[in-house]
């Protein structure tokens, strides 16, 4: 664990703002949509929190999810120089990359808790709910990433498509607004698996009352199933992926 702490520390010390880069994208997006909301361009509906905090938490959860989604792919890409030469459990490279994601998530969670405590106040129950939401987003992202990584490693176009979806897919979630009118868009925004995780984080920050227990349970169970199935699929596909790396000279 100390090795991973040193690795991530070295990674962020290379930049002038250091750990601030972990939350800067969320701050930037939150500030932009807050100005749009103030100008009447975005109508977020009843959110139960100061809108800037509402948007910040939703955006940060999406950021945790999107980066976790890339963990298995980046793990295999980063290890390609020795995957083709050394025989070892292939899941180990994903686990090693996951440690770094856990540290990054913990920093973001700690900063979020601090901001909520300072600007809105928070209880012990609220802290627990926010932890569940952040951890759930990480697990869901890794689970989906594991499921698709063998195909993304074999087909570059699929990975490019996924990156495009991760770049703009946040706007199909309740990250910065809650649709008020029923319809297809509201169904997509409120029905995706990341929505309950955003909601539980906001519930913890706003009132410490869990409003979506069933949906949260479904999201967490889905994440665990995806991790188990995705890891099994990755183990099965590893020989094919490694052979493709050898044939491609990668």
TrEMBL record:
Query: Which GO terms fall under biological process for this protein?
Result: lipopolysaccharide transport
What keywords are annotated for this sequence in UniProt? Membrane, Transmembrane, Transmembrane helix, Transport
The membrane topology noted for this protein in its Swiss-Prot or TrEMBL record is: Multi-pass membrane protein
Q: Does the keyword Transmembrane helix apply?
A: yes
Q: Where are the transmembrane segments?
A: 20-42, 48-66, 102-122, 128-149, 214-237
Q: Where in the cell is it found?
A: Cell inner membrane
The entry's cellular-component GO terms read: plasma membrane
Q: Which family does it belong to?
A: Belongs to the ABC-2 integral membrane protein family.
Protein name as catalogued: ABC-2 type transporter domain-containing protein
Q: What organism does the UniProt record list as the source?
A: Cupriavidus campinensis
């Amino acid at each position: 664990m100390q090795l991973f702490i040193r690795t991530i520390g070295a990674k962020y010390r290379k930049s002038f703002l250091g750990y601030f880069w972990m939350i800067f994208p969320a701050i930037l997006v939150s500030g932009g949509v807050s100005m749009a909301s103030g100008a009447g361009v975005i109508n977020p509906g009843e959110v139960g929190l100061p809108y800037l905090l509402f948007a910040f938490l939703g955006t940060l959860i999406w950021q945790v999810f999107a980066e976790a989604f890339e963990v298995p792919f980046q793990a295999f890409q980063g290890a390609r120089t020795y995957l083709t030469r050394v025989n070892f459990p292939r899941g180990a490279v994903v686990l090693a990359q996951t440690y770094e994601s856990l540290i990054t998530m913990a920093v973001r969670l700690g900063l979020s808790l601090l901001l909520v405590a300072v600007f809105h106040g928070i209880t012990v129950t609220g802290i627990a709910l926010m932890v569940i939401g952040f951890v759930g987003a990480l697990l869901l992202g890794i689970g989906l990433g594991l499921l698709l990584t063998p195909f993304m490693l074999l087909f570059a176009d699929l990975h490019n498509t996924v990156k495009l979806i991760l770049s703009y897919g946040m706007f199909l979630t309740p990250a910065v607004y809650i649709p008020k009118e029923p319809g297809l868009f509201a169904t997509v925004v409120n029905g995706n698996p990341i929505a309950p995780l955003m909601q539980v984080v906001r519930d913890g920050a706003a009132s410490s009352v869990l409003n979506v227990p069933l949906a949260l349970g479904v999201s967490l169970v889905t994440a665990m199933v995806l991790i188990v199935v995705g890891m099994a699929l990755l183990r099965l596909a590893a020989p094919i992926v490694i052979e493709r790396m050898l044939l491609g000279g990668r």
